[in-house]
User: Fold this.
Amino acid sequence: MEELKILLVDDEIDFVTTLSERLSIRNYNVKIATSSVEAMPLIYSYSPHLIILDIRMPEMNGLEFLRLIKKINPTTEVIMLTAYGDVKYVEEAMKEGALEYIIKPIDIRELIIKIEKLREKIQKRGVFSNVK
Assistant:
């Protein structure tokens, strides 16, 4: 049975490391990247079902990277991470194909609910009917 694969992309190393550990404890298959440049090869080699992506990053911001992700694989789901005050970016991200957004600091329970909602969406689509 194929596991739900999650890629965390955020330039805050402590944040992605801690979040990865918290998700791994809950039996999610998680990889991390601290930049879009670092994440790009993982999109091809790891083929995540879900990317949790920070809006504000150096090199390429989250919106630009979201557009690129959707060109590479339109079925990859994206949850945007944002700080208060980024409302216009969140609206743009949703128009560009982001599934959800979460405001930092994140509530892990809220994130788990959104991840499980995503798992159901993938299973209904039938593309990954065996995602657990």
